[in-house]
Amino acid sequence: GELIDAVPTAANVEYHANVHYALNLGQLSYRVGRKVYWDDKAMKVVGDRDAERSAMPHYRGPWSLPKEDAA
Q1: How much is the pLDDT for 25?
Q2: Which residues of 37-67 are buried (b: 16+ CB within 10 A; e: fewer)?
Q3: Which of 27, 38, 49, 51 is deepest in the core (most CB within 10 A)?
């Protein structure tokens, strides 16, 4: 539809995803008041349960974030 047509074909999605991660991790670090460590391969915060919980969105019922299947 219109959204797909509006995205330029030359958009560098990988670059913008990395910028997005950096900005969100900076915001997360600011909120928890300390450094936050990110595992790029696992795509999650490591070594800080509070920050890890804060990094995940909280949905109101009946909505939930889909869980990945354990392979």
Answers
A1: 93
A2: ebeeeeeebeebeebeebbeeeeeeeeeeee
A3: 51
Backbone angles phi, psi at 53, to 5 degrees: -65, -40
Amino acid 24: pLDDT: 93
**Residue the block writes with tokens 């509070």:** 50
Q: In terms of DSSP bridges, do strands 37-39 and 44-46 run parallel, antiparallel, or are they unpaired?
A: antiparallel
Q: Where would I find the H helices in 1-71? A: 2-6, 13-32, 49-55
Which amino acid is present at 47?
G
DSSP state of 1: -
In the beta sheet, which residues pair with residue 37?
A: 46
Residue range 11-35: average pLDDT? 89
